[in-house]
Each structure stands twice: as C-alpha cells, then as structure tokens.
Amino acid sequence: MPKDRPRRKLEERPTRTLIFCKPYHVLSSFTDRAGRPTVGDYVDVPDVYAAGRLDYDSEGLLLLTSDGRLAHHLTHSKYKLRKSYLVQVEHIPSEDALDQLHQGVLIKSRRTLPAAAEMLSTAPDIFPRPEPIRYRKSIPTAWLKLGLIEGRNRQVRRMTAAVGHPTLRLVRIAIGPIALGDLSPGHWRDLTPDELKVLWHCFKT
Question: Residues with catalytic annotation?
Fold first, then answer.
C-alpha cells in the first residue's frame, strides 16, 4: 500500500494595500451602472477593493486592499481607528459649536461619539478642487480639522450641519497612522512594509 504523500502547504497569495487620493465626484467603487467616474478609472490593480468609503462629493485618502483580514479591521467599528478630515464650512464656528462637535451631536436620535475638533487659523495648503465651491460674499467660511472614530453615513456633513455650519468641502487626510501626504488627486501608491506594520499595530492596542 503506497505511503501517504505529504500534503503541500498552500501558498498564500501575496496581498497588496494601496493608498489612493480620491478626486471630487468619483465613486469609491470600481463600477457604476450610471457611468459615473469610479476608482477603477484610476487604479488598474486586480483584486483590490476599498476598505471603507468616501462619499461621491468628498475627496482624499482611500485605502484599497486585497487583504480581507485587513479590510475587516479597517472597517469594523470595534477597532475605533481614527479618521482625520479637513472640512470647509459656512460661517465662523463659535467655541460652543466646536464644543458640541467634541462632545457629540444628535443625528437621527443617536448621539455621535466625541470627536476631535479644532478651527484652523488659516486655510490649509491642499490641492484645489476642480469645481470650486460656491462662495457667497455675505457668508464667510472657515476650515476645521475633525477626527472621528466612527463612520456613520455622511457623518461629518451631518455633524457640522447639526451645529449650524454646513460643509462646503470635505477632504480626508488620514486613517489612523496613514497620512495622505502630498499624494495628488487620482494618484496612488503601495503602502510600504513599515506603514503596514504600524497600521497592524493599531489593532493590537
């Protein structure tokens, strides 16, 4: 009777994780039946998918990965990975409005978790949007930096509206320790091994 052959250990397929700067009016998916621009128009890498999403009218950092385990950690609410945004709003927020954002506001009868919120003294040095916001001479604008550890639907926009300051422009600049840096809209790169190591470390603390 022939001896059992040793089973070959299945080789794990290498995974890729990319950082992509999503332009304005681009979907976070790779296809769209309506024919709108998607991530797939910019990223020609097989088997990667967005870990989380950015709204069609939002811009900035989007992580794409073929690693299902990493995607789960990036999107599951229990890991509370902070996401940072630059937000241009109508009017000049008062300290009370910033305190409300910090403490949490009611959205559809549910209070948001406390957020980091600060008003910037000058406009940030970021890439221009292809369709400029509609300025109204009678309404001043301000830039905020917000940090959230939850990701409810259109949460940033709903939070600023709840305190009387509608969002005009929204740019995500960081997910945990991964920062957008000087990546331009429509461009992407692979995360480095060191970046991946630091990112995984966030889920162990």
Answer: 55
Domain boundaries, the chain: 17-77+177-202, 82-175
C-alpha neighbours within 13 Å on the C-beta side of residue 121: 0
For residue 75, what are the CA distances in angstroms to 18, 41, 51?
A: 15, 23, 6
For the whole model, what pTM was predicted? 0.91
- Look up residue 87 and give its amino acid: V
Give the DSSP per-residue string, 124-175.
---PPPSS----BTTB-EEEEEEEES---TTHHHHHHHHTT--EEEEEEEEE
> Can you tell me the distance from the alpha carbon of 204 to that of 202, in angstroms, rounded to the nearest whole number?
6
pLDDT of residue 4: 55
CATH class of 82-175: alpha beta
Nearest 5°: phi and psi at 196?
A: -65, -40
Fold of 17-77+177-202: Alpha-Beta Plaits (3.30.70)
Burial profile 117-136: b = 16 or more Cβ within 10 angstroms, e = fewer:
beeeeeeeebbebeeeeeee
Residue spans of the chain under pLDDT 70 = 1-12, 205
Whole-number pLDDT of residue 9 = 47
Give the integer Cα–Cα distance in Å for 80 and 204: 12
CA distances in angstroms from 82 to 30, 34, 53, listed in the order given: 25, 32, 14
